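*Target chain*
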Amino acid sequence: SDRNGFEAASIKEEKGDEVTVELAENGKKVKVNKDDIQKMNPPKFSKVEDMAELTCLNEASVLHNLRERYYSGLIYTYSGLFCVVVNPYKMLPIYSEKIVEMYKGKKRHEMPPHIYAIADSAYRSMLQDREDQSILCTGESGAGKTENTKKVIQYLAVVASSHKSKKDVNAIGELEKQLLQANPILEAFGNAKTVKNDNSSRFGKFIRINFDVTGYIVGANIDTYLLEKSRAIRQATEERTFHIFYYLLAGSGVKMKEDLLLEPFKNYRFLSNGHVTIPGQDDKDMFEETSEAMTIMGFSCDEQTSIFKVVSSVLQLGNISFKKERSTDQASMPDNTVAQKVCHLLGMNVTDFTRAILSPRIKVGRDYVQKAQTKEQADFAVEALAKAMYDRLFRWLLIRINKALDRTKRQGATFLGILDIAGFEIFQDNSFEQLCINYTNEKLQQLFNHTMFILEQEEYQREGIEWNFIDFGLDLQPCIELIERLTNPPGILALLDEECWFPKATDKSFVEKVVQELGNHTKFSKPKQLKDKGDFCIVHYAGKVPYNAGNWLTKNMDPLNDNVTSLLNISSDRHVAELWRDVDRIVGLDQVAKMSESIQGASKTKKGMFRTVGQLYKEQLGKLMTTLRNTSPNFVRCIIPNHEKRAGKLEAHLVLEQLRCNGVLEGIRICRQGFPNRIIFQEFRQRYEILTPGAIPKGFMDGKQACALMIKALELDSNLFRIGQSKIFFRTGVLAHLEEERDLKITDVIISFQARSRGYLARKAFAKRQQQLTAMKVIQRNCAAYLKLRNWQWWRLFTKVKPLLQVTRQEEEMQLKDDELQRTKEKQQKAEVNLVELERKHSQMMEEKVCLQEQLQAETELYAEAEEMRVRLESKRQELEEILHEMEARVEEEEDRNQQMLNEKKKMQTQILDLEEQLDEEEAARQKLQLDKVTIEAKLKKMDDDIIILEDQNIKFAKEKKILEERIADFTTNLAEEEEKAKNLTKLKNKHESMISDLEVRLKKEEKTRQELEKLKRKLEGEGTDLHDQLAELQQQIAELKMQLAKKEEELQAAMSRLDEEIALKNNALKKIRELEAFISDLQEDLDSEKSARNKAEKQKRDLGEELEALKTELEDTLDSTATQQELRAKREHEVSEMKHALEEESRTHEAQIHEMRQKYGQAIEEVTEQLEQAKRVRANLEKNKNSLEKENSELSNEVRVLSTAKAEVEHKKKKLENQLQEFQVKMADGERARTELNERVHKLQSELDNVTAILNEAEGKSIKLAKDVSSLGSQLQDTQELLQEETRQKLNLSTRLRQLDDDKNSLQEQLDEEGEAKRNLERQLSTLTMQLTDAKKKLNDDASALEGLEEGKKRLQREIEAITQNFEEKAAAYDKLEKTKNRLQQELDDLLVDLDNQRQLVSNLEKKQKKFD
């Protein structure tokens, strides 16, 4: 459609070639041709990151995917081996430092598509492979190339930031900062607003960033191409000149305006449209940003002022006005105020400047004369001066920036180049600049095709992989040759150079010569007078472009007023004089004047003085292409969504045209059909050997054999990989699958390690608990014994008497002595152990000492050798110094020789230039031969097929020849009979009446036979239509079977994915149950122990209270006792107070412990509740997933009933588990029963999984059966084709004519001529027969009516033959249409077979997972 390009719809009805579809958007039914329909991908592939993964690969699917991602804010999309970016026309938050950190060091498939991913992969490839890289941002103007280039530089500046050295501490700015700040300066002086783009690069640039061995940035260099300097003097409607003019006028202060003599925007003639603003951009702020960038780059204040003076002078040059004098055509300058301003800014004398413009000195012969200039010549000279001034300023800026960025005296180890060049342009008025830009884009597109398509397949051939060569990409060589070819016939640039040196040549004569030389070229067309405004048109890869050849000769020669340039060369301003130091290389007025003198003089000027703009640019582009071919390119394809610069709008037809021109679709197709992922044998073995333990035997083995064994152990499908000579190749998605398997394997290893570690820690904690338990039992036993004895009177007596006895103290002292003895023994043992250890260390140290002595001896010997070496080197140094003195003398001699060689060098340079041109021709011829080789191979294949067809035809013609010979024999016999009859007619006059009756009977019989033949013909036509209908039905059945097969495989894949999810959920649930049960048991044990400890503490408290009461009563009873008793009582009271204090402390600590335990258990309960809530949330999510899955599985309810019951059981388990978690203190026994039930259910699930595997085997059988059906249908299709061939054997002459190519027409024409000669012979024979019959008619008047009847029969037969031939042509057209539909079905069948292979691989992987699970 006009709005969306392609519309989503569903097929409702099919009638022959017409299909009735229902549009998804509005439900409207539309009839379309079957060939106009393209398949749609399932919803699973919506917004896919890599379009090579799309199942149905066509223009509609690619456009739909890009549109969906674009509307979702996803502007980057991978497309096979490169990246497609659609301009969002708004700022997106995807370029922050956080995003840079996210992409740093990540693989491409680990992160979403981004320009940072492309930059990082190029950077990593450069470091790993030590190969130079390049990133080519290509696309139309306004597609976002410049912005993406800036993002690449920003990323590299962060990732590859170099360490600061001591020398750089005092520098103005770091290298990375200066690299980033170079871009704003170049944009200010080289970018402008165009119709398509607000910040269009009006020059091309190749930024070369050098890196050292460690990957740090050590320098950078920027090359520029083809600055559009004509924009400085005039601009199209709604466009701006270069940004710096507007920045300067809007952002300069009052003092700067006075110094630079600046005026308002409307006063300048070179600002064609006045002050044109850019939405969302303030020119004043941009001026400050540019000044800051120049300061960081090391531009001094004087240099900045000089630069702005030159910019102001360019604007002022446009305001110089000339008038034509009345008497003569001479120009005059009535007001020289503007000229004074220009001379003030550029440091020149006003009088000299005015004289140089109005009446310059020109060399005529050997003398100089002053020639008055016309108004047109003076205006042209000023405009040319302004353009040249700005161009030289831009080149000087570039040299200055490169000098600031080149920090190292040595060349970097590797480099990464970023190419940002003006995109393909089709304006209303396309001139010489647009031709150069479009020529560059043609070369870059050819590089892309060569890199992505040809080199890919050449590597397959080098590695010995079976691969049918496919001719991908667009044929761009004819268009490039049209522009750059030197001879036979010469291209446009060569013709332009030739015209520049032709006497009295004009733009019109150049166009006439181009049309005359190149009028028959396939890529060249003459303009139509009404439609095309240009002088001629070139058919580029992106479209047909009309070019206006006005002023092309002048632009190619780029002449200047050499009188003014000489003044600028001796300017008082040092900066201006530096800009014009090479005035001897320019094309002066005298050289232009010589053009009209002679061809010989012109050719001498061409060789001796200068080269044209076209030649220089062609050389520069050739060097760029050589550099790019020596790198590993990374392509970024920029797409412009609309020409209105509106965010969120995507014009389908515009995007589709760019996708076709950029070769995006072909790139995806070769990526899918080829083997894009490749890895060397050693790396493959090192990385993935963990997946195949035991597959490779111990000992040395060749890498190729090891990889073959690993592939065999991995059980990969043979269609998914190829083993080359040094690498192993995989189709898309295979390495990603192996990475997932490897991650799972490593996860299993880590989990087993963690399990063992946790087991060790748990056993250690259990042993500690056991020790604590035995200690608690001992304490309990002693406490129980004390509680029994404390109220026994004898015990009380014993406790009172025991302190008074000296024996108890002796026992205590003995005990202390024993303890002391034990401690000394332990110390002695430790000392002995330490002594043994020290002796061992001593012996070890002695051994080390011996080793060190040996090393010291070796070092001394080495030192002696080094000293001897130093002495020898010193002597050599003296010898070399002597040689150096001799060499210096030789250098002086060589310098004299060098001066002589310089003269010879100039001569050699001309020869080198000629050789370079020959080399370019040879290179173009080589590329053309390579293309011819491919086409010839394809033609050879076609010729083989044609030979087979011709052999079949030869056999058929031989048969026809025999039939014709038999007919000729019959005719001769008939002729003899007719002659005998003619002789006997006179004798048999009486029998004529009976013969006439016989003839009438024969005529009736012939009519009957003719009617029977017509019936047979109608019957055959009916059978043909029936066969066509059967063929259509068979094709429909094939399509339906394919759709059913695809649907079944999708259903099978969905079922397997759901099964995996259910198993994972079940395992997680079981794992959580086990963890929670263990946690609950721990909590229960801790709680029980705390309860028992609390009860014991309370019991002890009560016992102590009772004992305190008893002691108080005893104290009251014994108040009147002796002094000793009073002392005892005081001691007892002191002990009681201490015990109280200890009891209070113990109770406080106990309460603190209880509080801590409460907090701990509270936190644990909260964690359990959080886990429970999380489980509930998971359950809610699972409920939602369940509903969606039930909707999807409604079509598969019969086959997946077992899985649905299993899912219901899992849901039942979840509910039970939640109840168990809520009542974990009460239902521990229920938990045990639930565990046994879960084990039983696991067995059930395993049996159900066995059933599922059986179902999978059945599905595999069905797929095999379907494949057999497809093959049988193919055989039926061949049978029907054979029947069609049998039907058309009667009309072989015409059918063969339709099948043969144009190359075979001549041979067929000869055959037709032979048949015509045979026919003419037959006609001659018939004429003789008719003559004989006329003779017989004269003799027999009665036979005239019979002869007339025969003539009418002959005419009727001719009409029937004509009708049959017409019918056959219709049949042949129908057959051709059937061939087209057959080819389309064959392509769809190939895609389905590829998908079937992928599905089989998935099924085999699932079977492996099932085996592992079992």
